[in-house]
Specification:
Blueprint (H helix, E strand, L loop, with lengths): L1 E4 L10 H4 L7 E3 L15 H14 L5 E6 L1 H12 L5 E7 L7 H10 L5 H11 L3 H19 L3 H5 L5 E6 L7 H10 L3 E6 L11 H8 L3
Parallel strand pairs: 1-2, 1-3, 3-4, 4-5, 5-6
Length: about 220
C-alpha cells in the first residue's frame, strides 16, 4: 500500500498528478487545517504525526510505503523514528527540508511573508479566507520546528527501514548537503537527484519520481 502526504500550504489534491502514475489503490491524506476542518490548536509536526497515526489505525494499514512531499516527508520520517510500532515499511521524501538553522529559517520566512503578493493570491485562490491564518500557522511552526520537533541524530539512526531522499536538481529550498547529511545518518538511506525538477511537486519530474517509488 502507498500513502501520499502533501507539503505545507497544500492539500492531497496537489498529489493527484503523481497519484495517477501509481497503483489505483494508492491513498492520500490531507492534514487538518489544510482542508475544511479548522486549524489544529497545536499546529506542529507532532500533531500531524498523531493524525497520521490515527489514519493508519482507522484504515487498518500495515506495511505502508509513505511518499511525502516537503512537510509530508518530515511527518513520515518523524513517525517512523518516534511512533511505537509504526506500520511504515518504506519512505520516499521529495523536497523535504531538514536544515532548520537560523540562516536557512530566515530565508524561508522571508519568502513566506504576507507581503508576498503572488503568494497571497495563490493562498486566497486555494484556501479562500483560511489562506492567511494557514500561512501564519505554518511559519510559526517552521520558526519553532527545530526546537520542538527537530529529528535528532539518534532518532534517525534508529530508523531501520529504507528511506529514499529525493531532491530536484533545481530545488532552491533544499540543498544536496542537508539531504546527504540525513542519508548518512540513516541505516538504509539513499539519495536520488531528480533531473529538471524544482521544489514544488507540480514542477517535479513526476514520471521519474513514480519510477523511484515503484522501484523501476
Amino acid at each position: 500500500m502507498i500513502l501520499l502526504l502533501h507539503g505545507a500550504l497544500a492539500t492531497a489534491q496537489d498529489m493527484e498528478p503523481l497519484k495517477k502514475l501509481l497503483p489505483p489503490e494508492t491513498l492520500s491524506l490531507t492534514f487538518q487545517g489544510h482542508d475544511n476542518r479548522p486549524l489544529p490548536e497545536d499546529f506542529r509536526i507532532e500533531t500531524f504525526m498523531e493524525e497520521l497515526d490515527q489514519y493508519f489505525l482507522d484504515h487498518k494499514l500495515q506495511n505502508v510505503t509513505v511518499v511525502g512531499h516537503s512537510m509530508g516527508g518530515y511527518v513520515a520520517l518523524s513517525h517512523a523514528a518516534l511512533a511505537e510500532n509504526s506500520p511504515i515499511c518504506r519512505i520516499i521524501t521529495y523536497g523535504t527540508k531538514f536544515d532548520w538553522g537560523d540562516k536557512a529559517l530566515a530565508g524561508m520566512l522571508a519568502t513566506l511573508h504576507p507581503e508576498n503578493e503572488a503568494l497571497m493570491d495563490y493562498l486566497k485562490k486555494k484556501f479562500q479566507d483560511k489562506g492567511l491564518p494557514l500561512l501564519l500557522a505554518t511559519t510559526h511552526m517552521m520558526a519553532h520546528l527545530e526546537r520542538l520537533d527537530g529529528l535528532l541524530e539518534a532518532d534517525l539512526e534508529d530508523v531501520q527501514i529504507p528511506v529514499e531522499i529525493v531532491l530536484g536538481e533545481k530545488d532552491k529550498v533544499v540543498s544536496v548537503a542537508e539531504s546527504q547529511a540525513i542519508v548518512d545518518l540513516l541505516p538504509h538511506g539513499q539519495l536520488h537527484i531528480l533531473k529538471e525538477s524544482r521544489h514544488e511537486i507540480e514542477r517535479a519530474d513526476l514520471a521519474g519520481l513514480a519510477r523511484i517509488i515503484l522501484g523501476q
